[in-house]
Amino acid sequence: MFFGGSLYVFFVTLGPSDSWVNQKMGNPALIQSLNIVPDEIASYSKEFYNDISKKTDAVRSDAGVKGSVWQSYAKNNIEIVQTHEGKFWGDGQHLYWKDNELAWNEIEIPKEVAITVHGIAMLNGDPVAIIDDWNPWYPYSAWRFINSVFDEKLRYENGIYAVNLKTGVFTYKFPGKDAVVSPGSDKAIFRRARGANHELILWDLKTDELRTMTVLTESESGSGISFEYAWSDDSKAIGIKGNELTMKSFQLLYLTDKKELIRTR
Prior knowledge:
There is one protein chain. A five-stranded mixed beta sheet has the order 1-17-16-15-14, with helices on one face. The protein has a four-stranded antiparallel beta sheet with strand order 2-3-4-5, with no helix packed on it. The protein has helices at 2-14, 39-49, 142-147; strands at residues 31-33, 68-75, 78-84, 93-99, 105-107, 115-123, 126-134, 158-164, 170-175, 177-181, 187-194, 197-204, 209-217, 227-231, 237-244, 248-255, 260-263. The chain starts with a helix and ends with a strand. It has a single domain, classed as Neuraminidase (6 Propeller). 11% of the residues lie in helices and 43% in strands. It has 265 residues and is mainly beta.
């Protein structure tokens, strides 16, 4: 008990060792500023910055699910709904999906996972729900503290999972949160926080390749993020806008094929 409590105090107050937590960020793309904006970029900018909100089709009906709906997504005749039966979104969670069927199919959520659904994607030919899970140290366990040195999903951080809708299998992928799936269903953006720095990462679901697009720093440490991001309709560009420490107010455009990051404001 004393050993486990000591480890908990050490980890929470001083943080885990850099040698085993993914503290090292990738190399971000160089930000380009253009005096003359090409038509292609201008059209993307117009698409994004009038309304950068996450785009998703509406679920046709949530009749037949238990609890209150927290998140719902629909794409290519596949629908998923996340609900909760308790007072808060994390209490009594349920996950449902259907594919051209009238009845919802419930997927059992592992007891150690508190999910937030972020969209529908295709992985190895199967439809998957992309979710993240916040993993606090509680309930405290010396076994978990020690094993988290070797097992990423045991660590005190958000983790991204792919949930196979057909089999119900939860597969841990890597640390991260707030994923946004591309309209083409084969890529996703997510962020990974290290203190006041937030790494925006492009994930290719076909190859599992991760590519750092940029790293944004909170305007004031501990204030949280003040930026948002979204896909273009053709999945070839990513719009990012908001405020951060170095650039202040900004608008960025990342071109996925060219691997270029352009500041448009």
